[in-house]
Protein 1
Amino acid sequence: MLRDRTVAFLCLALTLIIWSTPITFFDTEFDGVDNDRMEWSCPRPIFSPSPAAVDLDGLRAELAETPTGIIQSEHPQCRLLNGTQLVLGLLSLAGAIWKGRVWWLSTADARAEKKFSRLHAKTSGKPKGMLG
């Protein structure tokens, strides 16, 4: 069984990975678009949650104009995928916050005892100053 702080850390790491890593592997086929000649990409989800739509007709025309070579473009599904990644990252962040709070509250007594013992460790128990 994992500790609460471990789960909170894993959820936070997952959030950072989801938000910072764009999806780069696409195997979707479109009519008139040769995937072998296309280099698809997507922007990072955290910086571009809703990228601009890709004009497939413009890509087809560009492919027809350039018979050889690779054409770079954002994938038409990036708009949906980035939104999905953003929502998954938010859910993961919510899980990290929740588990972090559970961990913080479960260790509150131990932190209070430690603080109490640190504050009272230096006293001798005898009154000091004008009372003595």
Protein 2
Amino acid sequence: MKRILFIICLALGHHCFAQDTVPKRIVDTLHIQLLKSNFTPLGNAALSNTVSNVALSSTLNEGENGKIELKYNFKNRWTGGFSVDQKIGKDAKKAEFYNFTSGVSPGTTIGFNIQKIFWSPKLSRAGFEQFDALANAFAKEHGVDRRTVTYNDIATNGTPLQKSRLSEVKLKAPVFFNLKVSLTKSNFSFTADSVNLKSTDVNYFTPNLGLSVGVPFSLRSYLALSYSYSKTYQASDELTFSSPFGTTKNSFSQTLVFGKPQQKIEHKINLEWRQSFGETSTDFAIDPSITYGFNTDKMAISLPVYFIQGATKVGKPNGLQGGVSFGYLTKTSSLTSFKDGFWAQLILTTPFDVFGSLKK
């Protein structure tokens, strides 16, 4: 929160505390900076991306995914998004989201999200008077014009007492809410007839609903709590059947999934902390999180490290970005060995600006 206050002071100069409400144009500018500084390759964070992008990810032992995100920033700090995510098979040379013959391809996830940042930073009268007194004392001691004194001046060159009193000056923190809805198409082949062994193909569209609430600590850091509801289907066990071959004594064997897929419902909570680093732009970021599934009694710990720069100083996309993510998945009742529970993911992302969001 102090860093948000510091940036506001830099933006406003000596008018920083001339009123108890920060001008809307400054808040709007900070809102865009907040979103740019927290760009997430693959877009899986609680805070929604503001930049449209194309991403490719490869997860150890699970294969590859191709993903497209289209983002648009509305007025009053609303952000809307549409995404398509496709699992890519081992032999596939492209991510095919839609087939004109069969429609949406199995393994495709279509998602929508809407995000709102509530931010009306205000100073209390006591906070204004305290900063004004500190700025007057600082200007007198250093022989400078009071109107040029900023929060950063006192935080950097003030006395220990001034720095301590400065830490008591607070702004109302922003809060963001992000609602995500998605549908995933899955395909299963199985048999329920042990006599004829006739195979049946079925498709399911399964929903996932998520809600995130977060509080930024600065333009480069936030803490978020998320809840998600999901429905999935799990294939039944495979069985090997032996059948006579013609009128001979020979037989042949085939392995089939016997029985319909089983429906699974999961409720999860996730706690995420995001921190970006860099002098004047975001050079890299960490985004550790912990997730717990109530129905499966599973816990996942992940540590993504992103090498990113959401936009240049003039607001243009910076080209190829990405990162690596490491994680561990286990049952809480009986810990899985690190070897069996460990996973790793490589992410490459190319941002692009369809709606002019980066130019604001």
Protein 3
Amino acid sequence: MTSEESTWAGIIVPLISGIIEDMAFTEVMPSEATPQYDLAARGASLLVHDPVQGEFQLIIENSLLKYLAGIVYGPMADELNEQSEGDFLDELLNTIAGRFLSVILPEDKSFTLGIPERFSGPFVVPVPPVSSWSFVIEGMCFTLIATGESLVALENR
């Protein structure tokens, strides 16, 4: 973790842990290593339009997405398909980005987000400026990436 990422890490790690623990009742551990994702992994991106511009990306192992969606959907887990898993991924990214922006922006600032868009591998870390955080749940990984000059610049304020 670089010093540039350390300020936000103190916010994002407990925030993501809280969201996942509240949704899926499972423990989340931060990881220092950035995982190598195979082509089966899934991803979603979410643009930030205002008051800064940038993008959040969430990349998750397919097995972890199925695991978390199965917990969240409970008795309906037998009816899960790729679309409902993707909907869960979109909602997870939207929740993380929204809560994160609510914390880092001044209380009187609202923000505008786009609509989550899904993507698949191969997964390439965006060009700088970028901040990323990786996590492990039950031996399976996911990574949150924030990119965009004005979004990442908020950390230094």
